[in-house]
Amino acid sequence: MTNKKKMLLSIILLEGFVYGGLMYLFHIDFAKHYIVLYYIFQFIFSRYREDNHLIWEEMKMIIQANGMLFLVQVLFNDVLQQNIFDLATLTALIIVFDIILNRTMRVIFRKYVADRVLVIGIGKHANDFVKITRENRFAMMNVLACVDINHVEGFENYHQACRVEDVEVVDYKLLDEVIEKYRINSVMLAIPDSSKSQMQRIIMDLFDKVPIVKYMPRVNGMMTFDSTIADFDGKLVVTSSQTKTHVIGKIIKRIIDIIGGILGVLSLIPLSVIIKVISLKNGDHASIFFTQDRIGKDGKKIRIYKYRSMIPNAEAELERLMKENEDIRIEYLTNKKLVNDPRITKIGHFIRRTSIDEFPQFINVLMGNMSLVGPRPYLFREKEDMSIYYKSVIKCKPGITGMWQAHGRSDLSFKERLVLDDYYYRNWNVWLDLTIVYKTVKSVIFKKGAM
User: Name one GO cellular component term (predicted).
Assistant: First the structure.
């Protein structure tokens, strides 16, 4: 039995032991029947599997499995005669325990069970993959080295800048040696822009040397997580499904927006008083609020609210700066922002760094022209630069936070932000929204890439 199987078996036994103990504490009858049902639903939702995935997916499966178990218990409650409140409390407790247990076990045993991964490629995709595995220890993947393919025969036109940080980079001619040195059991091909012949060349070189070979495919706007793969008499056929928000999904999203909007607007009362007092002490007597027209759903004009973080005549000042300084003009036209923006006020640096400037947009959320999560509310002057992404971005209400805020925040370029907003539209679901909210809060707390 492998170490990974031993870890999963330990998790299975511990979960059953705790579930049975909680039922005893709540004086719930039919304990044996419930434990059997508990395991049935865990397996139905693919809980106990050896493949590598992130904690967000595990949390989703835990909530789905235990939520379904709770519904079954409620449906048959006329027979079982249990207290609904006790069942709900038990379900909530076991969900929390399962999440904590699974993460803790994977962190503790990571050293012994994590796949020993070799990444082929040293470009942006490789660097992003390494970063994700380092920040998400739940995935049980330990990247030990990356392979430079720039000088490999047949890859002369596939140049990759070396961007991988804190990991050994080796030449492709040392492929066999590095596999043996690190006892590699998994390879990730992080070269999605390679041709079919280039990919086949590497796969053949890896043949019979490692048990697991994964690759990042070259994708386009048609590929989503709703896409399916089928064998069509020897031909690999991908069926793409353009994601559409169902009525139930829209209702759930709006309910979450209303609850979040109410809580957010209530927080504006003390926050506005504090910001106004500090602004007055700094000699700034102008309004602490700032309004601006942005592109809303279906391309309609919406007026968004923000705390003012710049001088009152910021737009006119930007025009002046771009006329007088060519570097500033190029930087703004490229990234739609300035890294060291001279227009930001003293308190503006603080409210931007903490993202407090976005809080008044909870008013927009309550009004219904924005959502808690969605694409960035783009400026009308940015419409032309949005190019092909404009059509997909305006399919959603803009959000206070979104994909790009949760994946690098202001560290990303304008094009990268558009790609992530397009991804959000094509792959939206309620769970994605909840994940983005959590990751945004985490980014703000640790001040990573804050604006």
Answer: membrane
Terminal Cα-to-Cα distance of the chain (whole angstroms): 49
Q: What's the gap between Cα 188 and its chain centre?
A: 20
The DSSP bridge partners found for residue 304 are 292
Within a 10 A sphere around the Cβ of 272, how many other Cβ atoms? 15
The residue among 90, 112, 134 that closes a domain is 112
DSSP class per residue in 235-278: EEEEE-------HHHHHHHHHHHHHHHHHHHHHHHHHHHHHHHH
Same domain, yes or no, for 265 and 384? yes
Token pair in block for residue 11:
């998790």
Distance of alpha carbon 82 from alpha carbon 67, whole angstroms: 16
Amino acid at 255: I
Higher-confidence residue: 107 or 374? 374
Q: Give the contacts of 142 (CB within 8 A, at least 6 positions apart).
A: 110, 114, 115, 116, 117, 133
Q: Of 218, 234, 260, which one is at a domain's C-terminal end?
A: 218
Type of residue at 37? L
Question: What residues contact 437, with CB distance under 8 A and at least 6 apart?
Answer: 372, 373, 401
Among 170, 168, 92, 102, smallest CA distance to 136 is for: 102
β-pairing, 301-307 with 289-295? antiparallel
Asked whether residue 158 is domain-assigned, the answer is yes
- H or E element at residue 146: strand 141-148
Kindly state the DSSP code that residue 137 receives in the 8-state scheme.
G
The domain that holds 181 is classified in CATH as 3.40.50.720
The pLDDT tens digits of the residues spanning 39-74 come to: 999 999 989 888 778 888 899 899 999 999 998 888
pTM of the model: 0.70
Q: Are residues 253 and 148 in the same domain?
A: no
Residue whose pair of structure tokens reads 């994946």 in the numeric block: 407
- The secondary structure of 174-235 as a DSSP string is GHHHHHHHTT--EEEE--TTS-HHHHHHHHHHHTTT-SEEEEPPP--TT--TT-EEEEETTE
167 with 74, same domain: the answer is no
Same domain, yes or no: 7 and 118: no
Three-state DSSP class for 383?
Answer: coil
Measure the CA–CA gap between 338 and 318, rounded to whole angstroms.
10
- d(C-alpha 244, C-alpha 238), whole Å: 18
Q: Are residues 291 and 402 in the same domain?
A: yes
Q: Say which residue the tokens 């393919």 belong to.
A: 149
Question: Quick one: average pLDDT of 8-28?
Answer: 87
Which of the 8 DSSP states describes residue 172?
A: G
SS3 286: coil
Q: Which residues, other chains included, contact 387 with Cβ-Cβ below 8 Å and sequence gap of 6+?
A: 418
Helix (H) or strand (E) holding 15: helix 3-25
Is position 336 within any domain?
no
